Write the structure tokens for this entry.
Amino acid sequence: MIVGFIGSGNMAAAMARGWAGAEADAPTQMLFTDSGSGRATALAAEVGGEAVETNEELVERSDFVVLAVKPAALDGVAASLPTPRAVLSLLGATPLSVLASHFPESTVIRLMPNLAVEVRTGVICMADPEGADQEIVAESHTLLGSIATVYELPDEQMDVATAVMGCSPAYFAVVAAALGQEGASGGLEPDVAIRMVGESMAGTAELLRKRTPFEIETAVASPGGSTEAGLEALAAAGGAEAFRRAYEASIARMRGA
């Protein structure tokens, strides 16, 4: 199976790196284009793919086309293409109805991955239109499942999913940076502090498969202990409220508010 990337930016690169390291169900070949930045050539060299000269050539050679351009570029890019067999769109805040109007004869699937697809532990939300070719949908699910846990959602829920799981790695990175900096200030080696925080976050992610957030919080925070003091300080500083505001700001930006 050949996958072609129109656009070779950060999320396209994360998916390509994930597939390059996957042991099964990965593309047999990956093709790349860009708008002249040189990223396609660099990414192809990194993952063992091929940079091609034109989007038209890429579409003609690909079983799946990953559309990874800016939403504002959609009109111009789509107008110049032959009909792809299948389009996997990474365009933020761009609903299936808009995508289908640009690719009326293709199977179009809307995706929202998060950055952890690069290490094959990501989340990908996936929406496909009513009446989509189910063979292509199943192939897509298998392909994407090699780098992520895949959630099939209605199109109208994709913006919410983006704000919850697409943006959240950046928020977690802010938390990791803050705790890591405090650890370093307290005498830990900076790289050791960050690794400790990262492993703690990874372990908590595993716990969340079995326990609720409340159960984890109460299990760690003994009455009168240091964690309880930290939680009280977080509450006083508006910690949870800050994340709610981050979610609301992301949703507003996606919806043009």
Remarks:
- The CA atoms of residues 16 and 47 lie 7 Å apart.
- The two ends are 40 Å apart (CA to CA).
- The chain has a mean pLDDT of 97.
- The domain at 168-254 is CATH 1.10.3730.10 (ProC C-terminal domain-like fold).
